[in-house]
TrEMBL record:
<dbReference type="GO" id="GO:0004601">
    <property type="term" value="F:peroxidase activity"/>
</dbReference>
<dbReference type="InterPro" id="IPR006313">
    <property type="entry name" value="EfeB/EfeN"/>
</dbReference>
<keyword id="KW-0349">Heme</keyword>
<dbReference type="InterPro" id="IPR006311">
    <property type="entry name" value="TAT_signal"/>
</dbReference>
<feature type="region of interest" description="Disordered">
    <location>
        <begin position="1"/>
        <end position="45"/>
    </location>
</feature>
<feature type="region of interest" description="Disordered">
    <location>
        <begin position="446"/>
        <end position="466"/>
    </location>
</feature>
<dbReference type="Pfam" id="PF04261">
    <property type="entry name" value="Dyp_perox_N"/>
</dbReference>
<feature type="compositionally biased region" description="Low complexity">
    <location>
        <begin position="456"/>
        <end position="466"/>
    </location>
</feature>
<dbReference type="InterPro" id="IPR006314">
    <property type="entry name" value="Dyp_peroxidase"/>
</dbReference>
<keyword id="KW-0479">Metal-binding</keyword>
<feature type="compositionally biased region" description="Basic and acidic residues">
    <location>
        <begin position="25"/>
        <end position="36"/>
    </location>
</feature>
<comment type="similarity">
    <text>Belongs to the DyP-type peroxidase family.</text>
</comment>
<keyword id="KW-0560">Oxidoreductase</keyword>
<dbReference type="Pfam" id="PF20628">
    <property type="entry name" value="Dyp_perox_C"/>
</dbReference>
<keyword id="KW-0575">Peroxidase</keyword>
<protein>
    <recommendedName>
        <fullName>Deferrochelatase</fullName>
        <ecNumber>1.11.1.-</ecNumber>
    </recommendedName>
</protein>
<keyword id="KW-0472">Membrane</keyword>
Length: 466
């Protein structure tokens, strides 16, 4: 199957030397970095030279992050095999990984606020983050690793992912509306990056909403996802601070229709009618930003809406099966739409109750609006009243929020499901295009003076930044 989500995926199965050998684990402390070339090591800043730089001692130079791992960047990878071998997902590509690539089992999502007012320092952070992300997604430790360096300094990597496989880790960055109030970026804010309006039933907590930046870390191993966010936060110390974060488990939607559809915490199959990673036409139509959408720096990017949706689990669990099925417009066992036999049968909306979730969310009810859903379940303990603080951390990617989430969520104002859920957190982000190659970095197209070159070679990008 052709992969249009990434034009570099096949070449990235080799490391930068063109070799095919290399480690897939994270034990690449100084003692274990044999797979890196002498050149790549000599180009990396020495650990000694970085000590004192924010106290972190981060060696985030040009060390090669490639490893000879089975790359799983295509939407058509054999998901179970990739997952069981702990494969790596290619970091470089036209689009960022973590959107159309197969959905992993676990999530750690973090929204950050920017604390520095120094544009150059912030750009340097984006470059440092990119290098760390490049290494971690390939299964390597950050910088010079977690041990074996100078005893006087904290290690570059926190260490809890040592020995763990890449676990299909993807790291996806997004820029929130408030970032565009900073660094003179106001005229670069995309029109499609609107502040979300207040929706019926919203009960949003400011401490779980908004953010200048976000990083979505998905992996099959929760420790790998948590390690990634923790290390990015550590690298950002003094420049950015985590505003809120969310752990997720049990993906609630799939971008690989051949895989078994996962179930959400209400027990229903979720993601049946999602956009698949292989549906290049629908991805093009509904997910990826095109030249004519503008601005140029967002081409091949997307927009992300994140909503923390609390479920009133205990009330739901006392609801009859018939009512539960009426609420969704699908049956609980097979997941078939009302009046149909199979999960994948085409829904006949008029057979459903007028306030059924699927009927109201379906593109036919919303002038064709279609989302790529990529949410996760969450359970954050109990709320002090003996109820589970649990629900759905809803993540949806789209080409334009005004033609995606907003009309669908408005349509859901009369959703029968609303009696059992409440939206308690909300954020929206512009997700820039993918990092093209080893010289590229997250946000280059936004911060470079000439964003029109977003598609060209990135070999001299460092000198182009504003
Ligand atoms: C806790 C909240 C939610 C739950 C439990 C939930 C659950 C479900 C389930 C079980 C389905 C049917 C299977 C499928 O096609 O995926 C579905 C479909 C869908 N949901 Fe939700 N959902 C929730 C919130 C939302 C929100 C906030 C939106 C968007 C604003 C949304 C948009 C959709 C869409 C677009 C579909 C597919 C409709 C179709 O094409 O047939 N859902 N949801």
């Amino acid at each position: 199957m052709t992969d249009t989500t990434n034009n570099t995926s096949t070449t990235e199965a080799t490391d930068e030397t063109g070799g095919t050998g290399g480690s897939t684990d994270r034990n690449d402390s100084p003692a274990g970095r044999n797979e890196e070339t002498a050149d790549s090591i000599s180009r990396a800043p020495s650990r000694r030279s970085l000590i004192g730089w924010g106290g972190a001692g981060l060696a985030l130079g040009a060390a090669a992050a490639g490893g000879a791992v089975a790359m799983a960047r295509n939407g058509d990878d054999t998901e179970p095999t990739a997952a069981s071998t702990g494969a790596a997902v290619a970091f470089h590509g036209t689009n960022q990984a973590g959107i159309a690539t197969p959905v992993q089992d676990r999530l750690h999502f973090a929204a950050f606020d920017v604390k520095t007012t120094d544009r150059a320092a912030f750009v340097q952070l984006l470059k440092d983050w990119t290098e760390a992300a490049r290494r971690m997604t390939a299964g390597h430790a950050v910088g010079e690793g977690a041990y074996g360096g100078l005893a006087e300094a904290p290690p570059d990597d926190t260490g809890e992912a040592l020995g763990l496989k890449p676990s299909r880790l993807t790291l996806t960055i997004g820029f929130g509306p408030s970032l565009f109030d900073k660094f003179g970026l106001a005229d670069r804010r995309p029109e499609a990056l609107v502040d979300l309006p207040k929706f019926a039933g919203d009960n949003l907590d400011g401490n779980r909403s908004g953010g200048d930046l976000c990083v979505q870390a998905c992996a099959d191993d929760p420790q790998v996802a948590v390690h990634a966010i923790r290390n990015l936060a550590r690298i950002g110390f003094g420049k950015v601070v985590i505003r809120w974060s969310q752990l997720g488990f049990g993906k609630t939607s799939s971008t690989t229709p051949e895989a078994q559809t996962p179930r959400n915490l209400m027990g229903f199959k979720d993601g049946t009618r999602n956009i698949a990673g292989t549906e290049t036409d629908r991805l093009k139509k509904f997910v990826w930003v095109e030249e004519k959408d503008g601005p140029a720096w967002m081409v091949d990017g997307s927009y992300l809406v994140a909503r923390r949706i609390r479920m009133n689990i205990e009330t739901w669990d006392r609801t009859s099966l018939q009512e539960q099925e009426d609420i969704f417009g699908r049956d609980k066992g097979e997941g078939a739409p009302v009046g149909k036999a199979k999960e994948r049968d085409r829904p006949f909306l008029k057979a459903m109750k007028p306030d059924a979730h699927v009927r109201l969310a379906h593109p036919d009810t919303n002038a064709g609006a279609t989302l790529l859903r990529r949410g996760y379940s969450f359970t954050d303990g109990t709320d002090g009243l003996g109820r589970l603080d649990a629900g759905l951390f809803f993540l949806a990617y789209q080409r334009d929020v005004r033609k995606g989430f907003i009309p669908v969520q408005r349509s859901l104002a009369t959703d029968a499901l609303n009696e059992y859920i409440q939206h308690v957190g909300s954020a929206v982000f512009a997700v820039p295009p993918g990092v093209r190659d080893k010289d590229d970095w997250w946000g280059r197209t936004l911060f470079s003076k000439d964003s029109k070159d977003s598609k060209s070679s990135t070999n001299s990008t460092n000198s182009k930044e504003a």
